[in-house]
Specification:
Blueprint: H1 2-6, H2 19-27, H3 30-41, H4 51-59, H5 67-89, H6 97-111, H7 131-137, H8 142-146, E1 163-167, H9 173-182, E2 187-192, H10 195-203, H11 205-212, E3 220-224, E4 240-246, H12 255-265, E5 266-279, H13 285-289, H14 291-295, E6 302-303, H15 304-314, E7 320-326, H16 332-338, E8 343-351, E9 367-371, E10 381-385, E11 388-391, E12 396-398, H17 400-407, E13 415-418, H18 434-438
Parallel strand pairs: 1-2, 1-4, 2-3, 4-5, 5-6
Antiparallel strand pairs: 5-8, 7-8, 9-12, 9-13, 10-11
C-alpha cells in the first residue's frame, strides 16, 4: 500500500525500475551520490512518510562492498562529503580560496576607487545613522570615509575599555570610530588582506589618536591578514571582547573558518556584532563565483537559514537580529542575473558564553532584567535585539538566553538580572521578530524569534 500511495509522487526518471534511473545513477560521481543519499535519508530531509524515504530505502538495497573497502571509502568520503555540504549550503565558494580572494582583493583594491562606484546598495550604509556615530564620524579623516564600503553600523555603544577586533577593516572607518568609543584603556585591531586599503587605514593613525582624540598613545593598529585565520595575523585565542565586521563575511570563500576563528578569539562574555548581506535562497554556483556579484557582496551571500545553522555549529547558539533592511540592486544586468532572489543587510549579535549557558530554545526560569540606563546615548532604553527593548528601571521578563546575554557578557555592568536557573517553567514565549514582520518577510534569527 505504501508503494502504491507514494510511488506516483516520484518522477518516473527516479523510479528504481526505469532505464533513466540507472543512467542518472551511473552518471553521478560516487562522492556526490553518497552525499545525495545521505541528505535524503537524514532526519532533516526525509521522514518515513515521504517519497524521499522510499527512494532512500531503495538505495539501501545496493549490494554491500567488502568491509575493507568500506573502511577505506568512509574516511575519504567523510571529508569530501563535508566539503560538498559546505558548498551546497553556501559556507564555501567553488573555485578555490586563492581565486576568490584575488577577485575580491582586485575589486576593492583596484576596480573601486570610491563608494560611488558601487552597483548596488549592499555595501552602502542606509540613512539615519545614530547620533553618536555621526558625532564620531565627523572626526574621521575624509579619505578614510571616501574609501569605506559597508552595509551597516556594526559598532555598539558602551564599549569603553574593550578589546575590539575588526574583520576586513578596509580603509579603517569602523576602527577609527571604535578607537574613539573604547577610550585610552581600550584597543582596536583591524585585519585586512588588501595592501591598498591598509595603506589608507594606517596613514592617519598617529595623527588621529594623539592629536584628534588627545590620547598619549595610539590605541589602534592595522595588520595584514586573512579573516579566515585571525590567529595567524597575531590575534590570540580568548583576547577579544568585541569583534565587529561590516559587509565582509560574505566575501570569504570559507565562512565557517571565519566564524570559528572569531569564536576562538573571543573571551567568554564576548560578542561578534556585525552587519552583512544575506539572501532569501541558496544561489547557484555560477552566480556565487561571478566577480562583480562577489565584489558587490551579493555572490557570497548565504541563505539566511543556512547561516544560522552555521553559527550554531561553531558555538554561537541563538543568533540575534538587531536590525535589517532590503538591499536595492541598481544595475539592470545584475537584476536580470539575480532574478527573484532578494537580499538583506542584517546586523547580527552572536554571543560567546560557557558551554550550556545558551540553549537552542528560549526557556523560562522566571527571570527578569532591569536596565540601569548607563550606556552612553541610551539613557531611557536599550535594544538588545529587534524585539527586546528594555526601558530604564522597568523590569522585563526574559528567557534564560536573554538573561545570560544581558548579565554574563560585556553588557553585564549595565543590567541587573534577577533570578537563576534553579527552577524551570517550560518554554518562554518571546514572540515573532519585528524585522521579519516589517521588512516584507526579511529573515530573522535566533531561538528568541
Amino acid at each position: 500500500n505504501f508503494r502504491k500511495k507514494k510511488r506516483r509522487h516520484i518522477p518516473s526518471s527516479l523510479q528504481s525500475g526505469s532505464t533513466s534511473f540507472h543512467h542518472h545513477r551511473r552518471s553521478l560521481s560516487e562522492t556526490l551520490f553518497r552525499v545525495v543519499i545521505k541528505l535524503m535519508s537524514s532526519a532533516s530531509f526525509a521522514s518515513t512518510s515521504s517519497p524521499l524515504f522510499f527512494f532512500s530505502k531503495v538505495q539501501q538495497q545496493k549490494k554491500k562492498v567488502s568491509t575493507s573497502n568500506r573502511i577505506v571509502t568512509k574516511a575519504s568520503s567523510s571529508s569530501s562529503s563535508n566539503a560538498m555540504m559546505d558548498t551546497l549550503l553556501g559556507a564555501t565558494i567553488e573555485g578555490g580560496d586563492d581565486l576568490i580572494k584575488k577577485s575580491v582583493e582586485q575589486y576593492y583594491g583596484e576596480t573601486l576607487t570610491t563608494s560611488a562606484d558601487l552597483k548596488t546598495s549592499a555595501c552602502c550604509t542606509p540613512g539615519g545613522l545614530p547620533t553618536y556615530l555621526k558625532k564620531c564620524l565627523r572626526l574621521v579623516p575624509d579619505e578614510i570615509k571616501a574609501k569605506y564600503y559597508g552595509c551597516g553600523s556594526p559598532t555598539p555603544q558602551g564599549i569603553e575599555g574593550l578589546r575590539v577586533l575588526d574583520l576586513g577593516s578596509g580603509s579603517g572607518r569602523d576602527c577609527y570610530v571604535a578607537a574613539s568609543l573604547v577610550g585610552e584603556k581600550g584597543f582596536v585591531t583591524g585585519v585586512d588582506m588588501t595592501d591598498n586599503q591598509l595603506d589608507v587605514a594606517r596613514k592617519y593613525v598617529d595623527e588621529y589618536c594623539k592629536q584628534t582624540l588627545g590620547y598619549k598613545e595610539n590605541n589602534m593598529k592595522f595588520v595584514k591578514g586573512e579573516i579566515e585565520n585571525v590567529k595567524q595575523a597575531g590575534v590570540e585565542n580568548g583576547t577579544i571582547d568585541l569583534a565587529i565586521s561590516n559587509c565582509v563575511v560574505n566575501l570569504s570563500p570559507d565562512k565557517k573558518a571565519v566564524l570559528q576563528g572569531v569564536y576562538d578569539a573571543l573571551a567568554d562574555g564576548g560578542e561578534f556584532y556585525f552587519s552583512d548581506v544575506y539572501c532569501d535562497r541558496r544561489l547557484d554556483q555560477e552566480l556565487r563565483k561571478d566577480p562583480v556579484l562577489l565584489g558587490e557582496c551579493l555572490g557570497g551571500a548565504m541563505y539566511v537559514e543556512d547561516f544560522k545553522r552555521l553559527c550554531v555549529s561553531v558555538g554561537f547558539t541563538d543568533p540575534r537580529v538587531l536590525e535589517g533592511h532590503v538591499i536595492e540592486v541598481k544595475d539592470e544586468k545584475l537584476q536580470e542575473l539575480l532574478g527573484e532572489a532578494t537580499f538583506y543587510s542584517i546586523t547580527y549579535r552572536l554571543f560567546k558564553l560557557p558551554a550550556g549557558r545558551l540553549e537552542t530554545l528560549c526557556e523560562d526560569y522566571g527571570q527578569y532584567a532591569v536596565y540601569k540606563g548607563t550606556i552612553e546615548g541610551n539613557p531611557n532604553a536599550y535594544s538588545l535585539d529587534d524585539h527586546h527593548r528594555l526601558e530604564t528601571g522597568k523590569p522585563m521578563l526574559v528567557c534564560g538566553n536573554t538573561g545570560s546575554m544581558l548579565g554574563e557578557t560585556w553588557l553585564g555592568k549595565h543590567f541587573d538580572v534577577v533570578g537563576d536557573r534553579s527552577k524551570h517553567y517550560g518554554l518562554f514565549d518571546c514572540g515573532p521578530s519585528p524585522v521579519a514582520a516589517s521588512s516584507g518577510g526579511a529573515p530573522a534569527g535566533g531561538a528568541c524569534c
